Amino acid sequence: MNEHETLPAPLLALVTIALALATFMQVLDTTIANVSIPSIAGNLGVTSTQGTWVITAFTASNAISMPLTGWLAKRFGEVRLFVFSTLLFAVTSMMCGLSPTYEMLIAARVLQGAVAAPMMPLSQSLLLANYPQHKKGLALAFWAMTATIGPIAGPLLGGYITDNFSWSWIFYINVPIGVISSFVVWQMLKKRETNTSKFPIDFIGLALLVVGVGTLQIMLDKGNELDWFESNTIITLGITAFIAVCFFIAWELYDDHPVIDLTLFKNRNFTIGTVSIALGYTVFLGGGVVFPLWLQTQLGYTAFWAGFASAAVGIFAFLFSPIVGNNLHRLNLRVLVSVSFILFALSYFWMANFTTDIDIIHASLPRLLMGIGMAMFFVPLTSIIISEIHPSKIASAMGVVNFLRILGGGFGTSIAVSMWTTRGDYHHALYSEQITRFSHATEQFSAVVSKMSIPPLSFINHVINQQALTRANDDILLISGYIFLSLIVLIWFAKPPFMPSRAKN
């Protein structure tokens, strides 16, 4: 970015709010749909499993387009690209809300994800570029605060809107936010535009990326429905994805202007921080989709109350993020991130003990603990990632980071939903084996049910299915907890110092 004097505090605050709004809008758009999936699926005549494509179509498209952020920013300038991307996001949000069919909604979500790709990495890059060196940790904290408001507001807004209006309004609310954010950023930063230059775009790398990620996402989404590798379609998709990704990596290593700058991974801190964020977000978003689905489909929660239970994760994340960000230079970031992973693991182990009798307060408590971990997740890891990255490469670097983070989120959603269904079938079979005409417990239960004027077999099957999917949810939570514990080992391979001002590359 061209050298400019630091913005006066009031203008810097206004820019921060405008950039934060865009981040908030994009995060909101992911989490707000989580609790609305049953309503969207029912309204458009598809299953809840198919309804999760509303999330994965956005995340896959967003992830594929994300690596282009660096090239587009150099070609058109970071400020122009951010403003244009934000306005297009508002337009495609309107298209999502107006979609009359499931197919049109998925197509609109694909477009929405593609145009939204530059918003998050550029909001980080523009914040860091306009804050003085000694305040960059605080800038990251402000960014993280808005990123964590989404998990609070998204489920609550999504639940309230779905229960009281129409699911279309979860997309319409993006329109005024997008217009305001883009207007303020353009007015405040148009004279502080980054330098531009013309570079050829790597069309072959981009095509390989689209094929590789696209086929892998479809394979994960359709795998359970088509019985995985018993299906020739799944086998074909898997082989295609593998070949495309292998060719993509080989091509990017030798292309002069790659879509993804793989040389960034030569930096130890960048690699460790990126892998940690990507895997952590994969686990977090996967569980974040299954949790409200379980509450609504098995426990009878409304969309709003499922959103209320999910939203608790953002409360402490919002409160503690600025404290963490303002004290990054005083803290050992590896210790901070390790504590974050431990808190995530404890939260998942806690939730794995839930039963079908859980009430709304107790369902929310582990999510509060998770929120404390969230405050020590994004800010310290982002600081570790960019600690040795030159300022001119931050936009490209964050594009790669967010590409892998969002791609992981899409994969996590597909894997978690598929695993929930598969493990549910497994537990259902185990429970069903114990229901026989010779079982005294079965006879007693059937006698009680028969007095309620309910078909005994139908009700027993309902109870078994409810318990089976609850146990399946527990399986996902336990695995999630162990993954976070394993990431503690990885983060200690990062090499201090970690502050962005140290960047030398």
How would you characterize the overall build of this protein?
- There is one protein chain.
- The protein is mainly α and about 500 residues long.
- The chain has 2 domains: about 10-195 and about 260-425 and about 470-500, Growth Hormone, Chain: A; about 200-260.
- The protein has helices at about 10-35, 35-45, 50, 55-65, 70-75, 80-100, 100-115, 120-130, 135-165, 170, 175-190, 205-220, 230-255, 270-295, 305-310, 315-325, 335-350, 360-375, 380-385, 395-435, 440-450, 455-490.
- The protein starts with 8 loop residues before the first helix and ends in a 14-residue tail after the last helix.
- Residues about 500-505 have low confidence and may be disordered.
